Amino acid sequence: MSADWFRRRFLPRGPLPAPRPPRPRASPVPYRRPRFLRGSGSSSGTADASRRPDARPVRSPVRGRSLPWNAGYAEIINAEKSEFNEDQAACGKLCIRRCEFGVEEDQEWLTLCSEEFLTGHYWALFDGHGGPAAAILAANTLHSCLRRQLEAVVEGMVATQPPMHLSGHCICPSDPQFVEEKGIRTEDLVIGALESAFQECDEVIGRELEASGQVGGCTALVAVSLKGKLYVANAGDSRAILVRRDEVRPLSSEFTPETERQRIQQLAFIYPELLAGEFTRLEFPRRLKGDDLGQKVLFRDHHMSGWSYKCVEKSDLKYPLIHGQGRQARLLGTLAVSRGLGDHQLRVLDTNIQLKPFLLSVPQVTVLNMDQLEPQEEDVVVMATDGLWDVLSNEQVARLVRSFLPGNREDPHRFSELAKMLIRSTQGTDDSPIQEGQVSYDDVSVFVIPLHHQGQGHSSH
Amino acid sequence: MSADWFRRRFLPRGPLPAPRPPRPRASPVPYRRPRFLRGSGSSSGTADASRRPDARPVRSPVRGRSLPWNAGYAEIINAEKSEFNEDQAACGKLCIRRCEFGVEEDQEWLTLCSEEFLTGHYWALFDGHGGPAAAILAANTLHSCLRRQLEAVVEGMVATQPPMHLSGHCICPSDPQFVEEKGIRTEDLVIGALESAFQECDEVIGRELEASGQVGGCTALVAVSLKGKLYVANAGDSRAILVRRDEVRPLSSEFTPETERQRIQQLAFIYPELLAGEFTRLEFPRRLKGDDLGQKVLFRDHHMSGWSYKCVEKSDLKYPLIHGQGRQARLLGTLAVSRGLGDHQLRVLDTNIQLKPFLLSVPQVTVLNMDQLEPQEEDVVVMATDGLWDVLSNEQVARLVRSFLPGNREDPHRFSELAKMLIRSTQGTDDSPIQEGQVSYDDVSVFVIPLHHQGQGHSSH
């Protein structure tokens, strides 16, 4: 992506063209539930038919089907917010093949052997909006993008330290020292591959949705185990936490119009054209009205962490670029997340104002070194879409994990049972720890990934 | 500042105009040392005359002159790097007057009483580059800008919670609730005032330097005590830390081309014109050369935290936007800091490429709640320019503080003695804790601010 591209794409001269009516050239992306749920309940091709709020089924893989690392999974569909469950999930083994340089002078890439070279594992949650299509495409695609990106740098990943040149040729004798001084580690190549894979997947989704005349977007939360490390990449408002006996550690942070206010306001400052005169980029405690004109009111602009007062002018009465608090916060009155995949066609209702320039597909990546962690018997990573975290805090989830696991050591399916229990805790039933009235009506999907005796210190060849 | 202003200022159409030759209309800013050093040694109007590297004097206020909170101060000039000491310092009482609204319908601001309303204290360090003028102007000006900005919002600061309207009129009955929901606290108004004051001061410096035909820039590190809180605002590579018996806590972080790489690369991505075809915005482990052409080498772009490989093209051989590691890292081959005041005229040597668009004057602000902290006898804040931190780590400084203070309880001047001792520890003399060869040849300035029995729980009226 170049600056020119950005300008051509989002800043056409003259009035904005009307959004192209979708001209489907491909068949729509079919709705489905994750493959690993096959045989676990209602058929995967259709939405759940009867859905009384108090009788939505919690689904998890059938007993006997095991997910990578014996991870647990469970999901529940929303309380009639949408026809389909807009969450999607994927997991599996990640097989990285080795590509080797040819020995010729012209150095073409040749795949000399196609068998597995490095293997890892992959768990992913996608929370869709505006329809299920983007989340389904992401669940179908992201792992392939990641595999491709990892294969492109695998030569660098297997070295103790990434070489300056991927060919391994050393052009300058002090190249290893330059790499050392920059502090570049092999894990930085995995982080780079995750960043590239999210962007590649976003482009694929854009093309596929355009071709099939569909719309929509999704968040993406991915955990990848590779060579003794667990990478958690997040773009959106899902969340992953590490739960140990004496520790609860966030492994991701949420990207919403509130948490990314300064980045979003900054872009509107640089390209005011993106707001088409319809929105104000400034933040106020509430939407201003005529009576506020001429008054000095609290406000915040892109360069401010603190607050100040400004004299209200007419342009301040426009609808705010970011409006509402907490769960209600919306970007351009439309979207509750500021990072994710898809949304290429999304516009503010009845306008040509596009959301996409304000959205990032690049994830934030955190790394858990499993060797250093020395995971104990009941250490787990809990990954879930926002439906869980809207109702349960990290500490509440940790308490539920710690109270459930010790009593269920014999059940091989216990991590899925834990995931189901976590979801039931959001439904206001059972002896749930949530406060009266705090019930999730959203789609909720949960992975519970046990860490003990997993992914440590071995790089399989 | 508006986007249009930015474009007009930094992106003229056609070839860039040659920098205007300075036409001095005002007399140059006279060189001086901080006022509170008067009587402490060499005269303040000239540079220190004889300066053998091993015989540079460490200066501190004369015994008997006390700084706010009985803070200590010491400084040393660089080892012949420049004619003048380019560091500057300022401290004093901060007197905020109350401005009250008139009762008239037209609501003009009236200063009804001009006596002190709120008082605080102020300590500041400025590390100049390209001449001493910007640092001297900042030392002369920033506290006035801050007082003005605080007076503009003082009505909001003295309330339990900042009112939506500065007039105190309540236009919408639920305004206090909106402010509450946004989590806006009175300290956010001080943070906002500090942010605005830095920007205002930057504009003043720009005007004054242009008028006097001088050049230069400086970093700014400011501590402000107000209503039981200590605010630390930083723009540049100076540093403040809190040292307690059992704790060392950073109160600022450094802003350099390395720490702000993504912001700087992002701007070059948005406005490639700023590089005038002379620089590449991409980061590589070292500067590339002809032999690298066509090779796949490690690189990083603005959206990447991780690293990846790219095939080297000719444009990648240009000089990098950010080059060098650690202390050697430079922005556009020129500047070692990415935030600060001044540098309005600074250009890359022999080109028209401007540095200013890449620099921020806005500080990062951290807040220390003195009531919660319950400072003990020997808790201090150490503020110093980079000359100290290049040679001593936070932990080494903390050890020196803890070893010095208990043995010197009777000396009323002990905090300046401590500041002097810290500086001597950077000179490779005494029984210094630094490693062989690690000696500071830079200007070094240090404030040591004792926290015990200071600034707690009282808002003076």
Automatic annotation (TrEMBL), chains A, B:
Record-linked InterPro entries: PP2C, PPM-type-like_dom_sf, PPM-type_phosphatase-like_dom
Sequence ranges assigned to domain PPM-type phosphatase in this UniProt record: 100-451
Region Disordered, residue ranges: 1-63
Pfam families reported for this sequence: PP2C
Feature: compositional bias, Pro residues: 14-27
UniProt superkingdom: Eukaryota
GO CC terms, sorted: mitochondrion
GO molecular function terms attached to this record: [pyruvate dehydrogenase (acetyl-transferring)]-phosphatase activity
Protein's name according to its UniProt entry: PPM-type phosphatase domain-containing protein
Organism annotation: Muntiacus reevesi
